[in-house]
Design a protein that fits this description.
This protein is an alpha/beta fold and 143 residues long. It has one domain: 2,3-Dihydroxybiphenyl 1,2-Dioxygenase, domain 1, CATH 3.10.180. It is 25% helix and 35% strand. The protein contains three helices and eight strands; from the N terminus they run βαββββαβββα. β3 and β4 form a beta hairpin. The N and C termini lie far apart (35 Å). 26% of the residues are buried.
């Protein structure tokens, strides 16, 4: 069973966010569609062959939005997905890009979106994931 239905972030600038999230979410097989939100058209990213009740990602423009210390981590099914996401993020000049780094069972790249939302793409192996995540929080990479 899936834990999350969707992620819905706030951004200040739709144009910057569209370019950024198109590049990032494409790595995970998501494509942008436009849906009618609360009286407005809002961008939503869904899997290419999405079905009703599948997970999705979206944002709402809020000119007054201020980033906070929350972080959303995207699950990567392989290390290669982390590497592909990192390359895509470099291509759109993601702010505060750090990685990928191997924390021993926790392979991740950390970054901000253009509006300061703190994000991460990570791959956890079957062993060492929790310990690696703790090292990642401390910034202690393995060699």
């Amino acid at each position: 069973m899936r834990l999350f239905s969707h992620i819905d972030l706030r951004v200040r600038d739709a144009g910057r966010a569209l370019v950024f999230y198109d590049a990032l979410l494409n790595v995970f097989g998501f494509r942008r569609v436009v849906t009618a939100g609360f009286g407005e058209l809002e961008p939503v990213w869904r899997r290419v062959n999405w079905k009703a009740n599948d997970e999705f990602f979206g944002f709402v423009v809020d000119p007054e939005f201020r980033p906070n210390q929350n972080r959303v981590a995207f699950h990567a099914p392989t290390r290669e997905h982390v590497d592909r996401a990192t390359a895509a993020l470099r291509g759109v000049d993601a702010p505060n890009l750090d990685g990928p780094v191997d924390y021993g069972g926790y392979y991740a790249t950390f970054f901000d979106d253009p509006d300061g939302n703190r994000l991460e793409v990570c791959f956890l192996t079957s062993h060492g994931g929790l310990e690696g995540q703790i090292r990642a929080e401390r910034g202690d990479a393995t060699q």
